[in-house]
Design goal:
- It is a single chain.
- This protein is α+β, with helices and mostly antiparallel strands.
- It is about 40% helix and about 30% strand.
- It has a four-stranded antiparallel beta sheet. A three-stranded antiparallel beta sheet has the order 1-2-3.
- Helix 3 runs antiparallel to helix 4 and helix 4 crosses helix 5.
- The longest helix is centred in the C-terminal third of the chain and has 22 residues.
Length: about 160
């Protein structure tokens, strides 16, 4: 086991969620994947930070959930930023640690699967809390409700 500290941040500029609040309850998956809300995501550890600005943060939270599921099943996975900014590449090594690299910058983050998935899950839950604070009706959106339920399920597992 490694002692590397892993962090994941999903940041949204002040006012962004408030401006999107009216659209969130009825937003399609396409809207949430390609249009809004926009922000910055950062995955950091092992002295490396992979950070991408102006990405659809809901898509990152949802897409990384699926990518981490694939990683657990297949031993490798990729998350492609929808805006074409690049990809995060993940693979499980023979010693069961996960290596994360990016095709848009140098460096490798190495940590346990549990550390990486926990960091992404906590950042995603924080994003959903901020979305709900700006838009109390957000959970009426099927896609947001599904993500919230799956994140809560994983947190309790």
């Amino acid at each position: 086991m490694t002692s590397t500290v892993i962090s994941c941040r999903i940041e949204v500029a002040a006012g962004t969620l408030d401006r999107a609040a009216k659209r969130i309850p009825e937003a399609s998956l396409t809207d949430l994947t390609y249009r809004f809300p926009l922000g910055t995501v950062t995955l950091e550890g092992s002295g490396v930070a992979f950070s991408v600005e102006e990405v659809t943060v809901f898509d990152f939270a949802r897409g990384m959930l699926y990518a981490l599921g694939d990683l657990g099943k297949d031993g490798e996975a990729e998350y492609d930023f929808t805006e074409g900014e690049g990809s995060l590449l993940m693979n499980i090594r023979s010693d069961q640690l996960v290596e994360v690299t990016a095709d848009f910058t140098d460096g490798t983050i190495t940590a346990s699967y549990a550390q990486i998935s926990s960091a992404v899950r906590e950042a995603s839950l924080g994003l959903l809390e901020r979305i709900e604070a700006s838009c109390p009706k957000a959970l009426r959106n099927t896609y947001i409700a599904e993500l919230a339920a799956e994140l809560q399920r994983q947190k309790g597992a």
